[in-house]
Amino acid sequence: MLDYSNLPALDWTDPESVNKARVQILRAEPVILNMPKGVDLAVDAASLGCRHDPDNGVLVSCRGPDCLRALSRLQGLDGLEELAPAAEQADATVDVDPGGRRIVIHH
């Protein structure tokens, strides 16, 4: 699992976050999306190819584009759908941290 402590983080409520995240993804650089309170990051881990880290509850190495699309549909967060093509192009994976309310996109 990645050490997230030194990764750039974006606040999802910032209107520029989608564009900034897209640039990071296409550069093959990791990025954390800090999601607002009330966002449910529960996804079907098995269908997205995620592994569950038993130590901290994080879903790791999910199929990036599929995971972003699933989260977008579940939460109505269109910006995540917009990031899916960049994740596909960059062959990115996604870690989902429901407890920390964050999505980590990396390679």
Topology:
Elements: E1 9-11, H1 17-26, E2 31-34, E3 51-52, E4 59-63, H2 64-75, H3 78-90, E5 93-97, E6 102-106
Helix pairs in contact: 1-3, 2-3
Quick tags:
single chain; 107 residues; alpha+beta; 33% helix
Please explain how this structure is put together.
- A hairpin with a 4-residue loop joins strand 5 (93-97) and strand 6 (102-106).
- Helix content is 33%, strand content 22%.
- With 107 residues, it is an alpha+beta fold.
- The chain contains three helices and six strands.
- The chain is globular and about 30 Å long.
Number of helical regions: 3
Query: What is the chain-wise order of helices and strands?
Result: EHEEEHHEE
On the 0 to 100 scale, the average pLDDT is 93
Overall, the morphology is globular
Strand content: 15-25%
Instruction: Look at the helices and sheets and give the structural class.
Output: alpha+beta
Q: In whole angstroms, how far apart are the ends?
A: 12 Å
Computed over alpha carbons, the radius of gyration is 12 Å
Q: Show unreliable segments.
A: none
**Strand order of the biggest β-sheet:** 1-2-6-5-4-3
Please bin the fraction of helical residues: 25-40%
Largest sheet: 6 strands, mixed
Number of E-state strands: 6
